[in-house]
Amino acid sequence: MTEGNLRVLRLAKRIKSISSMAFDSSPGNLEQTDYMEVMMMLMEASTEIEQIAQKEIDLAGMKTTLNNNKS
């Protein structure tokens, strides 16, 4: 398993626990600042997943290009 895949798995687990925490808290008990903090954590994790995925896609594209040039 690549380092990127391990990071994505770790981030997915973090998103799951953050989401679970937010949903377990009743809306009346979730302060506006807590809500904003949860949203920021989710956004940061999502952004990191996007960056990892884009890097993997770019690497796969480069490998394909190199293989096509060898042919």
Structural topology:
Elements: H1 3-24, H2 32-70
Helix pairs in contact: 1-2
C-alpha-based Rg, rounded: 18 Å
Question: Can you give the helix content as a percent range?
Answer: over 70%
Q: What shape does the CA trace take?
A: rod-shaped
How do the SSEs run, as a string of H and E? Answer: HH
Structural class: mainly alpha
How large is the count of helical segments? 2
Number of strands: 0
Mean pLDDT: 82
Overall number of domains: 1
The major pleated sheet works out as: none
In whole angstroms, the N-to-C terminal distance is 28 Å
Explain this structure:
By secondary structure, the chain is mainly alpha-helical. It has one domain. The protein contains 2 helices and no strands. It has helices at residues 3-24, 32-70. Helix 1 (3-24) packs antiparallel against helix 2. The model has no long low-confidence stretch (mean pLDDT 82).
Short description:
With 71 residues, the protein is an all-alpha fold. The protein has one domain.
Give me some keywords for this one.
71 residues; mainly alpha; 2 helices
